[in-house]
Amino acid sequence: MRYRAVIDRGYHWNAAADTIRASLQQAKVDPKEIRGVCMSALAPACILIDRDLHPLQNAHIWMDRRATAECAWLRREIGEDRIFQVSGNLLDPFYGTPKVMWERNNRPGLYQRAYKFLAATGYACLKLTGKATIDYSNACVFAVAFDIANRRWDEEMIEAIGLDPAKFPTPYPCDEVVGEVTREAAARTGLAPGTPVVAGTVDANAGWVAAGAVEAGDTQLLMGTSGVMGVVQDTPTFARGLINYAHAANSRRMHTTASALASCGGLIRYFRDQFGQLEKSAEAMSGISAYEILSAEARHVPPGSNGLIVLPYFMGERTPIWDPHARGVIFGLSLDHGRGHLVRALMEGAGYALRHNFEIMQASGLKMNLPLVLSEGGACNPLWRQIIADILNVECVHAASSKGAPVGDAVVAGVGVGVFKDYNVVKDWVQLGPRVIPNPENHTRYLKLYAVFRGLYPALRDLYVGLAEAQ
């Protein structure tokens, strides 16, 4: 009961319900005019609910890497090749199924009480409709036992890893109606009872839809707390080492192959929060963003930050190294470096990590429509956009008009309930800013530093493990 009290006080559902109510009030929309609802959220997550549809624990979010022992068991007893053949994904504590295994191994009482395992989006849908479901995209990032090609749970795999197939929710296409808003949910959110609710999707998926990535080859980079670069595809080609899951647009047949940095925009937020107290005070007095002040310092630093290189693995790393033990490194620091050097090096470190992923995407033969569309968070920073263009050596463009995942959710809901004929409707809404052209001189300099960047992680990999064991 302790776990239920913690969850029900408001973390996930109250945030969603309060946002819905506030949006209705601000928009002055009659709830009866709303034709459908779609939710998206961080992914993967792992939430256990009981038969009364109450949560039993705090969710494991994507950044939670506690299931390392479970992944070691899967690697040894099942094998990564078999897991990849089924799920189209590799093995890492990032994914949802190892998180479920951790609950079984460490809190068996909660596991036994669990009726279903839900993703964050699925929990919100549960609170709206009273039905336990999961959309195709979230099911894919539960991974391990989700058959990505056939869009179903592989019960043989589930039983092989010692879990109960009955506890996994039924998967649905992202835009399929899975229920209606209950009277209880209507009273809490302000929505009209009976409003159709579609299955939903992963937050990055919704963000890509909002910025127009709905056709095969569309390539976008979301520069939020993490940095997620995705390529939409209509063939079952799953790049090993990257993340593969159903795309929100036409989720019955379309996929997204994505790279995912654990830390991107979160790097600059970390620096602001820990070392930018003066900038935050200046923001409060002047109205000028602390980020803008820090960026102004970084603009005075030459490309390459005078030899300062950052490994951006502050919270471990996902693609392509898949190492929960990895941590951030500031390499080459000297007495000649100042704050601006470090801010720029953090931006460049994310750029180098993106290049590592981009090279894998290119080598896998994925069709990639360029220019690369940048949106959200760090993409609002002109300096960072130029850094990305210079390091990747590709033209970039900012989707400045994109309002992010909520707009993508609206499109998915609209298609699901028949308001929109198809997903191409969003193409008329997206306005792209001027193209960012890579600077050849800067690119040449970055290539030399990138070679050093690539050498750092292999040199430190064993030391990361030693550091984890020493704590």
Description:
The protein is of the alpha/beta class. The chain is built from 18 helices and 19 strands. The protein has 2 domains: 198 residues, ATPase, nucleotide binding domain (Nucleotidyltransferase, domain 5); 264 residues, Nucleotidyltransferase, domain 5, CATH 3.30.420.40. The strands form 7 sheets. A 7-stranded mixed β-sheet has the order 13-14-12-11-17-18-19, sandwiched between helices. Strands 1-10 form a two-stranded parallel sheet. β11 and β12 form a beta hairpin. The radius of gyration is 22 Å and the shape is globular.
Q: How are the strands ordered across the major sheet?
A: 13-14-12-11-17-18-19
Number of domains: 2
Q: Could you tell me the mean pLDDT?
A: 94
CATH class of the largest domain: Alpha Beta
Number of helices: 18
Strand runs, count: 19
- CATH architectural arrangement of the largest domain: 2-Layer Sandwich
Question: What is the gyration radius calculated from CA atoms?
Answer: 22 Å
CATH homologous superfamily (4th level) name of the largest domain: ATPase, nucleotide binding domain
Largest sheet: 7 strands, mixed
Euclidean distance between termini CA atoms? 32 Å
Shape: globular
Spans of at least 5 consecutive residues whose pLDDT stays below 50 are 1-10
* Strand portion: 5-15%
User: What do we call the CATH topology of the largest domain?
Assistant: Nucleotidyltransferase, domain 5
User: What is the SS-derived class?
Assistant: alpha/beta
The helix fraction, in percent, is: 40-55%
